[in-house]
Specification:
Blueprint lengths: L1 E4 L6 H9 L5 E4 L13 H5 L4 E5 H6 L3 H5 L4 E3 L1 H10 L3 E4 L1
């Protein structure tokens, strides 16, 4: 399953998402969720051992977080990569 999060990393939506993520899932951080790049303590980074955590490059850049994205364990994806992620996962759940 692909989990798409657009809320900040310490929001209720993020907490609910993390409680449902399972091994082999993917997480895509978009919009305000890219702020997770500023929080090394975000629980999503702990889940990265079992799931892939991706960050939408355009949203990171628009928030001045491109440098943080390069120094993180997140996988940067552009809009084409976003589409590819949706094609790779049979189920998609958006957390808004």
């Amino acid at each position: 399953m692909l989990h798409i999060l657009n809320k900040p990393p310490h929001s209720e939506a993020a907490a609910q998402m993390l409680s449902t993520v399972a091994e082999g899932d993917g997480i895509l951080l978009i919009e305000d969720a890219v702020q997770a790049l500023l929080h090394a303590d975000w629980q999503g980074w702990d889940a990265a051992a079992d799931v892939s955590v991706c960050v939408l490059k355009e949203d990171a850049a628009s928030r001045g977080l491109s440098g943080a994205a390069l120094n993180s364990q997140a996988i940067l994806v552009d809009m084409e990569g976003f589409v590819e992620l949706t094609e790779q996962h049979t189920k998609i759940l958006s957390w808004y």
